[in-house]
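User: ok so my PI wants both of these folded by tonight, can you help

Assistant: No problem, let's get them done. Here's the first:
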Amino acid sequence: DFLKDISINNIQNIDWEDLTSDTFGNIYIGDFGNNSKKRKSFAIYKVTAPEKASSNTTAEVISFTMPKGEKSQDFESFFLYNNKFYVFSKSNKHVKLYWVPNDIGDHEARYISEVELKGKNTKVTSADINSDGSMVVLLNHDRLWKLTNFDADDFLSGTIKAVEFDHD
């Protein structure tokens, strides 16, 4: 448990959205926001062992583009599971799921699936998976969606239960 300021000297914040980590304590920053849907390249920055990093450090870069023929998406959420990043679109109604390998370098994202979420304001802004990989939670300011009983890593293929937040 620590709090530390770190400057990353080799990258700039285009549109940082979400954070995740791995079991080794490395932190990953998702620089993939794309409100205009004109962005062509996206990045995930790896900060290795941030507790040991100096106040001025360098990040490794995992970059990705959309699959050929796919329109650019706005992303705000991702997590790391089985050495793959699972990235969720922030689209209204339809959420799309892609994966990107956890390997430094340039990649093309791989489309997995999409699903239509019910209700108003269905833009996904955060995501996570539990430690045994049996449940995924998607989140926005109005509700969360609990995803279970899915097929392999097609997290959108199973049971989706919405839980509404009771706030104004």
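One down. Here's the second:
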Amino acid sequence: PFTYIHCAIDDYIPFCEYFIIPYLLWFLYIAVTVGYFLFFNENTTEFWSLILNLAIGMTLFLIVSYVYPNGLNIRPAEFTNDSVFTRMVQFLYRTDTPTNVLPSIHVYNSVAAFSAIHTCKNLQKHKGIRTGSFILTTLIILSTMFLKQHSIIDVCGAFLMAYAIHYLVYGYATDTEDKKITEKALG
């Protein structure tokens, strides 16, 4: 038996097939991020922090799915137009059932990738990469709702989990680095 996840706000979010692009870019985003930290970033602590962050999140997702089977019933029954984007969404719907959606792995892993990029010492001077990561993370998160793959509840659950696990994995180092940056800025 599934518990259906739904929030009144979900009804106000329109379906938009164009968000299939950032939704699918998620696969590349996560692979490139892990690949960068594995092959190009020499700081092994940052690599293992990313891997630990992803592993904890996905393990908790599996536990939640087992203990609290859940699903969605917010996908559109039919599409008003026929385009390459709607066909891509139809393919997605056929291959990815609307079950075990809470919390959203797309959202969680995107936030974890952004956290790794944002805290990476080698990328501090690369504002374009950091800004691009923020924009792509934001578009991926929005895509989960505009494609009706996730409820806003799934997104909020993923954010809460990402925040808590980020603090477990990066908390001390991030606090220490933030303090150093603040002290340096204040003179």
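The two ends are 59 Å apart (CA to CA). Residues 118 and 131 are 9 Å apart (CA to CA). Good luck tonight!
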